[in-house]
Amino acid sequence: MSKLKIAVQKSGRLNEDSMKILKAIGISIDNGKDQLKASARNFPLEVFYLRNGDIPQYLRDGVVDAAIIGENVLIEKGNDLNIVERLGFSKCRVSIAVPKSSGAKSLKDLEGKRIATSYPNTVNQFLDKAGIDANLHIINGSVEIAPNIGLADAVCDIVSSGSTLFKNGLKEIEVLLKSEAVLATSPKISQDNQAIIDKIQFRLQSVLKGRENKYVLLNAPNDKLDRIVKILPGMNSPTILPLAKEGWSSLHSVINKNDFWDVIDELKVNGAEGILVCPIENMVL
Ligand code: PRP
After folding, report:
1. Site to substitute for ligand 1 among 93, 95, 160, most atoms within 8 A of C-beta
2. Which H or E run includes 155?
3. Which among 26, 45, 39 has a CA at the least distance from the CA of 203?
4. TM segments (predicted)?
5. Is 212 in contact with 87 (CB distance < 8 Å)?
6. Quick check: 219 and 179 in contact, CB under 8 A?
7. Which residue, by CA, sits nearest to atom 20 of ligand 1?
8. Distance from CA of residue 176 to its chain's centroid?
9. Which ligand 1 atom sits nearest the alpha carbon of residue 141?
10. Inter-residue contact 29 to 38 (CB < 8 Å)
């Protein structure tokens, strides 16, 4: 039986959440420490723990069929590869930053300047688009130190919390792109393995949909149900069950997490009581 080979970051910011999302879709992996390859116990899948920067080429060559990878790495090294699903974690941005004392305010102010980066293709693409000629210094790590040691006038690197920039006395002047973890596939994937990816994608979508929503249960007097039902969108319409207490009902519904607090406020004002909110593991539509 065919097995899907999936690459996951060996160590670094994506590793833990990548393993967590595989677990959330019901795939159990025996994860021995320092292993470079592991098999799933209950799914036709082998996980390869690889270095981030190597993954696009492995995908391109068909050494692995799929990967969980930062979109920023794909844009830099694998712009030709296919993104199947955005995974909503490891969100960051690729930004240009300069020392706090610098007068540079945007990309346009970097004409003739030196930019240190691990993302040369990305930076060049944006510089070309803006018609700016700058000199790139390619560094593979600790990019933010470059201005302090006189190596560059600006840096381009990923920013997540912003703490690395802050600690190195840098300010962000331009966001080139926003990124998150994605599931990408190889152009050489076989039909059998594509069918496995389709299964994984279906499961991922139900987990991601669940994460976007919350399950809400509340009690309300029957004479206030009409108003409350209008506030609760639900997947179809809310479930209403009678309570043992005469004249009262319990309502169950699903609320998008972005509207959540506004909806709760409105429910309270309109007579809802005993509101319970639960996370949703999966939502299959
Ligand atoms: C990245 C990046 C920055 C830092 C930004 O390094 O190179 O240095 O994170 O994150 P922050 O805004 O939350 O401070 P990472 O720790 O991923 O290791 P790397 O040097 O191997 O890229």
Report:
1. 160
2. strand 154-159
3. 26
4. none
5. no
6. no
7. 141
8. 17
9. 20
10. yes
Residues 6 or more apart in contact with residue 279 via CB below 8 angstroms: 210, 214, 215
**Span 30-78, pLDDT tens digits:** 876 678 999 999 999 999 999 999 999 999 999 999 999 999 999 999 8
Domain range summary for the chain, segments of one domain joined by +: 4-88+181-210, 92-179, 213-279
Strand partners, 115: 136, 154
> Can you read off the two tokens belonging to residue 26?
């019901």
* The model's pTM: 0.90
* pLDDT digits 0-9 by tens, 113-158: 999 999 999 999 999 999 999 999 999 989 999 999 999 999 999 9
How far out from the chain centre does Cα 161 lie?
A: 15
157 CA from centroid of ligand 1 (Å): 8
CATH H-level superfamily of 92-179: Periplasmic binding protein-like II (3.40.190.10)
Provide residues with CB under 6 Å of ligand 1: 12-13, 141, 143-144, 157-164
| Nearest protein CA to atom 1 of ligand 1, as residue | 158
Query: Does 233 have pLDDT greater than 80?
Result: no
CATH among 3.30.70.100, 2.60.120.260, 3.40.190.10, 3.30.200.20 for 4-88+181-210: 3.40.190.10
